[in-house]
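Lab manual, section 2.4: Encoding a predicted structure.

Procedure: take the sequence of the chain (239 residues), apply the prediction step described in section 2.3, and record the output as structure tokens. A sample record is shown.
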Amino acid sequence: MPDFSNGNTNKLVKYLNIKKEFICFEISERHSVDKNNLEKIFNHYKDYNYNIAIDDFGVGFSGYKLLYSLTPDIIKIDRFFIKDIEKNIKKRIFVKNITHLATQLGIKVVAEGVETKAEFYTCKELGCHLAQGYLIQKPTTNSNEILSTYPHIAKIIDSDKRSSNKNNKIEKYIQKIEPMSIDSKMINVIEYFKQHPQATILPIINSLYEPIKPLMMLMVLEIKINYSAFCRLSERFLL
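Recorded output:
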């Protein structure tokens, strides 16, 4: 990108009145790139809270290097690993390990090229967060054809739930906690832990109602610990 310069993207986003959360810059592993220049550009966009994705993950030679140096928001596992994955144990091992690593780093995983129910179920079972492919929606330039939810996919998921063991009801063990926006003031976070002294976590979400990455959760927990220490110190001086 020899003609790259600061500020142009922000100007376009502001002019078109588009939220940055809805914009994602992708790089494909299928193309050779100038790594140093790429890091500079992508870090620039990350600093402005744009989403970064690595496309066709797994087919190039620099996938894990890109994953390490860029730490994208999303990786899209190439169709090669998804096709007939339910029949191929090697593909399942690869996808499971990629998904596990990405999840540990707070990265969302998209299974690319999902075309059958069997592929969908397997990717879901292996921990992929999202799916893309003909089973969900064929490529289109008509934005009206792109839906926020797809009824036929909802039926597939519901069917999978009904076929699972009904005695495994983890829901009754889940503690429901009202999340707080990332834009909330710090005093609200402190007040929350003050009103809920037994709480150990506070879910934080962005403007798309998505959970913030694990590192941010650790920061919130640290705030709680520091607040508790402050309260104990105050009590000692008062006594």
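Check your result against the sample. Residues 214-218 have pLDDT under 50 and may be disordered.
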